[in-house]
């Protein structure tokens, strides 16, 4: 699909983002551009600022400097266009909600906080649940699911939101291969629709081939681009230090 006529206005741009935690600089002067229709992987060692980057872009934590712009406006003023799934460790799985409850939460902004869900909202939530293969789990308490199933439920919630920008923080931790395959398949479907999908990941294995663009971080941006541009020995040494094994695959 050709997005050339709208790519300029739908570009996501982070400019000079810096974040300090007290006396520690967690992120330093990070700038990059993401065009619509891409699945973007954010990589780097533990403590590199990957999650911090996403949270700063979304305004969930304060930035010391910098801005994030989408369609010419601050991203923090367009939260209705964003779906965000944090790390599973940050979610209270004891909360008394069913799978259906969680997926319907993706329709709250569309319906309004004090309004009943419309037939359209319920249909879109049901369609999203079907896409991730969990229709039969609709009435199951979310805390009773496996890690992979839980991740698929939150993907379904994101689909129900009909967001243009989707952010996932370590979605592949503790999931099975079936879930990983489903996630990547849907990520690419969303990108094909012209949406932008940004994924914090730590796996330097074969799954790295699934990303159209890579951001390599270690508190500052080491490199941004396709695999050939980013996965060089020099860049990986700067990011990880010493020797690190990574999958190069075919030329991007």
Automatic annotation (TrEMBL):
List the keywords (alphabetical): ATP-binding, Nucleotide-binding, Transport
- Domain ABC transporter positions: 12-244
Gene3D superfamilies for this protein:
P-loop containing nucleotide triphosphate hydrolases (3.40.50.300)
| GO MF annotations, alphabetized | ATP binding; ATP hydrolysis activity
Q: Which Pfam families does UniProt cross-reference here?
A: ABC_tran
Identify the SUPFAM superfamilies for this entry. Answer: P-loop containing nucleoside triphosphate hydrolases
Highest taxon above the source species: Bacteria
Q: Does the keyword Phosphoprotein apply?
A: no
The family note in this entry says: Belongs to the ABC transporter superfamily.
| Name the record gives this protein | Metal ABC transporter ATP-binding protein
Organism, by scientific name, is Thermocoleostomius sinensis A174
